[in-house]
User: What shape does this take?
Amino acid sequence: GQSLEQPSEVTAVEGAIVQINCTYQTSGFYGLSWYQQHDGGAPTFLSYNALDGLEETGRFSSFLSRSDSYGYLLLQELQMKDSASYFCAVRGDTDKLIFGTGTRLQVFP
Amino acid sequence: KAGVTQTPRYLIKTRGQQVTLSCSPISGHRSVSWYQQTPGQGLQFLFEYFSETQRNKGNFPGRFSGRQFSNSRSEMNVSTLELGDSALYLCASSLSGQGSEQYFGPGTRLTVT
Assistant: This one.
């Protein structure tokens, strides 16, 4: 089967850096995505990694290591508006996008 | 470009009833996927439609069904509702399917009493 593990909750203060990890087990692997969801809102796409390494988009970066079946989302210069749930998602050879259970990030002033 | 729209936004139904949810994708997107979101369970994949054909299906009972029309609009139907079906139902559209960026609608909050 396919499964993803990520921490249920992470807290940090404004201006800090936080890393949200995601480990996955899939048969086949095509890529790891990250989505952000604010309370009451729809998930929105943040990043996608198909190859090993770091992808940077502004304050957010995402990393993938296919050999370790592991990735992370790095958020820098945290702002209050970054308080949200973050989901990693993997597409394996079933061609379904499987989501993790989400990490709730709380940013404090 | 208009985003993904879902109707209705909120729905209250009684056990045993059936419900139909609607999703209009972004113009030009041919793939529509449906997800069930419940607290602690994340997003559970229901099914994906592409050009009016069901391309993939998650592990949900046959009470959950869907279809897609020629204009890419999609509907999801749940028959014989159970209390456990209470959830946020999200649809997402994309250009080519599960391998491309998913654009989510605001969801339909279904409460079964």
User: Anything to note?
Assistant: The mean pLDDT of chain A is 94. The interface with chain B takes residues 30-31, 33, 35, 41-45, 48, 87, 89, 91, 94-102 of chain A (CB under 8 Å).
